[in-house]
Amino acid sequence: MSEALAVSIELVRYEGPTLPNHDIHMIFFLFETPSAIRPIGAPLDAAMKPHLVAIFEATLGRLKAQDVDQEVKERAISCLGVILAHAGDQLAAETAAALPVVLDKACVIILCVLASN
After folding, report:
1. What is the pLDDT of residues 14-28, one digit of tens each?
2. What is the C-alpha separation between 87 and 95, in angstroms, rounded?
């Protein structure tokens, strides 16, 4: 499974930009992957942790990016939630660095929604 996951991540990284709505396709892929790597309550295979870190960093990168649309940022926040639900105990250092970014982006999204009503 580790090799298949690595190939999938590389395909999304290198071939994905040629797809329309690349960021959305990437986030959808990343959204489903943590539950396959580590179902809630299951032990984490040590070989999979680097993949989880890579998924976390790729998702956080999309969240931090200034040139992506609102839908991508909303899905990136959801994806980070899935990652943390499945592997937050294994990503303590990464989580501590990401929480201020998530909070800031979530506040912006909430303000945008309130302003549109």
Report:
1. 555 554 555 666 666
2. 10
69-101: string of b/e by CB count within 10 Å (b at 16+)? Answer: eeebbbbbbebbebbbebbeebbeebbeebeee
DSSP code of residue 15: T
Provide the whole-model pTM. 0.67
pLDDT digits (tens, 9 = 90+) for 57-78: 888 888 888 887 877 788 888 8
- Tally Cβ neighbours within 10 Å of residue 8: 14
CA angle centred on 17, ends 38 and 28, rounded to 5°: 30
Domain hosting 11: range is 2-116
How many structural domains is the chain composed of? Answer: 1
Task: Evaluate whether 25 touches 12 at the Cβ level (below 8 Å).
Answer: yes
